[in-house]
Amino acid sequence: MIEFRAHGKLFVAGEYAVVEPGQPSVLIALDRAITARVAEGHGSGTVHSEEYGHLPLTWTRADDGLALDREHHPYDYVMATIDLVEKLRAERGIAPRFHDLRIESQLDDASGRKFGLGSSAAVTVATVGALDRFYGIGLSQRDRFRVALLATIRVNPRASGGDLAASTFGGWLRYSAPDRERLAGMLGGRTVSEVLADADAWTGFDVERLPAPKDLELLVGWTGSPASTTKLVDVVRRHRNGGYPAFLDESRTCVDDLTTGLRSGDAAQTLDALRRARTLLQGLGASVGSQIETERLATLCDVVEAAGGAAKPSGAGGGDCGIALVPADTDLAGIHRAWEAHDIRHLSVAVQAPEGSV
Ligand code: MEV
């Protein structure tokens, strides 16, 4: 049995802007994960998860042996990933094998509701990692990220891949994305190995480790309302107006200041950048007529600001989680109580230690 764990994530700053190639963001990986386990299949393959139940994989005979039969499967992150890794396996001359894939998630609550901690990304990274080990392909950490991004853009071409980077590399990260439309176009005519090896194709992609903030505690609150990132990103795309270039500039400055605050261990600068990141999202929401900061998210943030910290919606907003940093001597239990009074649940999470070098 081969096992691979991939972590959940939260955006700290740079949301929405990060969908533009080269625009920076800051993310953290969390100690909650999705685990993919692969075992040898016998004459057939399966995927087993909460989402699918028990799903038999049907395969068609292809020149190189076996290929996933796309018509018989929901073409989502797991299927797109299996499909891509099978292509890569064939390109590397590795013989095909049937496999049973089991997926287990710590990124949902007991009743299966998603917290909004990047489960699509984590399931993609976990599947790439588990199949890479199963076939002994030997992908580097960066190539695992790249394969996960190529699989993701087949399902959601606008996704920035920031969540995949956090899930792959762990810790605190600064991330900017390559041009996914260009990558998607390339995959049409070239092998997966060629696209992975083409440095030019990945222009704009950058990932750097950042130190954890000094003298500040991280808090995460869950609003209990699920949000659709794809829909919200689409609304911003359709309604963005003349102020959009200024939003991108301000987002870059805010992420740069946050990066400097973290690197120099300057708690005041870090908190100030996080507050500006909240204001930027409020302005973006107002300009496109979309509630990125819902009432409950606003309460979540206001409670933290009143206690001397900084907070903002994490990710696309519209529900899901808010992220907060507070001075280390803050009354954390007081914040938790105030959140609970407004039906906001404190999620007990920690930042996952960095894995490998980026
Ligand atoms: C969603 O978690 C964050 C967005 O920036 C979209 C993305 O990065 O793909 C809104």
UniProtKB/TrEMBL annotation:
Alphabetical list of InterPro entries matching this protein: GHMP_kinase_C_dom, GHMP_kinase_C_sf, GHMP_kinase_N_dom, Phosphomevalonate_kinase, Pmev_kinase_bact, Ribosomal_Su5_D2-typ_SF, Ribsml_uS5_D2-typ_fold_subgr
Residue ranges of domain GHMP kinase N-terminal in the record: 84-171
Key words, A-Z: ATP-binding, Kinase, Nucleotide-binding, Transferase
Associated pathway: Isoprenoid biosynthesis; isopentenyl diphosphate biosynthesis via mevalonate pathway; isopentenyl diphosphate from (R)-mevalonate: step 2/3
Lineage: Bacteria, Bacillati, Actinomycetota, Actinomycetes, Micrococcales
One Pfam family recorded for the sequence: GHMP_kinases_N
Top-level taxon of the source organism: Bacteria
Protein name: phosphomevalonate kinase
UniProt-listed Enzyme Commission number(s): 2.7.4.2
GO molecular function: phosphomevalonate kinase activity
Domain GHMP kinase C-terminal: 272-341
